[in-house]
């Protein structure tokens, strides 16, 4: 990869609705019909991954390597959830994002997420060689 187009301060947002499929009950992460922590973290990762995929060559992508988050408030069925990822730091191929999630009442989660830029072919070659 010759040129890094990803810089600190860049942001991406994605949204979803709380449905039966992304509740703690459905995802087996709890026993209540509220937005599941794994669903929130996946939405945060989605925002970061989509930001990167728009800015790297087609033969490159990013893989998540670390998540350190807090789920601070529950969100009921039918509510909308928005996650945002903001590039905090670029260190070679390693990217650090500040991630946050919100529902209509305010912030429901926050944390840090790290991704590493990889060449798709090389990465999958290593995976299949295992």
Question: What features would you describe in this structure?
Answer:
β4 (94-103) and β5 form a beta hairpin. The chain has a five-stranded antiparallel β-sheet with strand order 1-3-4-5-2. The model has no long low-confidence stretch (mean pLDDT 96). It contains two helices and five strands, in the order βαββββα. Helix content is 21%, strand content 42%. The protein has helices spanning 37-53, 120-129, and strands at 11-17, 60-71, 80-91, 94-103, 106-119. The chain is α+β, with helices and mostly antiparallel strands.
H-E order: EHEEEEH
Q: Helix content range of the residues, please? A: 10-25%
Strand order of the largest sheet: 1-3-4-5-2
Count of discrete alpha- or pi-helical segments spanning 4 or more residues? 2
Shape: globular
Largest sheet features: 5 strands, antiparallel
Low-confidence stretches: none
| Count of DSSP strands | 5
Strand content: 35-45%
Keywords:
alpha+beta; 130 residues; 21% helix
Helices, strands, pairings?
Blueprint: E1 11-17, H1 37-53, E2 60-71, E3 80-91, E4 94-103, E5 106-119, H2 120-129
Antiparallel strand pairs: 1-3, 2-5, 3-4, 4-5
């Amino acid at each position: 990869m010759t040129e890094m187009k990803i810089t600190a301060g860049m942001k991406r947002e994605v949204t979803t609705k709380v449905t039966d499929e992304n509740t703690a009950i459905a995802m087996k992460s709890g026993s209540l019909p509220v937005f599941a922590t794994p669903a929130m973290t996946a939405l945060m990762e989605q925002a970061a991954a989509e930001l990167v995929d728009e800015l790297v060559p087609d033969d490159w992508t990013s893989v998540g390597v670390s998540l350190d988050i807090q789920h601070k408030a529950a969100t009921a069925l039918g509510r909308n959830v928005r996650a945002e990822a903001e590039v905090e730091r670029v260190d070679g191929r390693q990217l650090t994002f500040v991630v946050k999630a919100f529902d209509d009442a305010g912030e429901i989660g926050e944390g840090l997420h790290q991704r590493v830029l990889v060449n798709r072919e090389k990465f999958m070659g290593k995976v299949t060689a295992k």
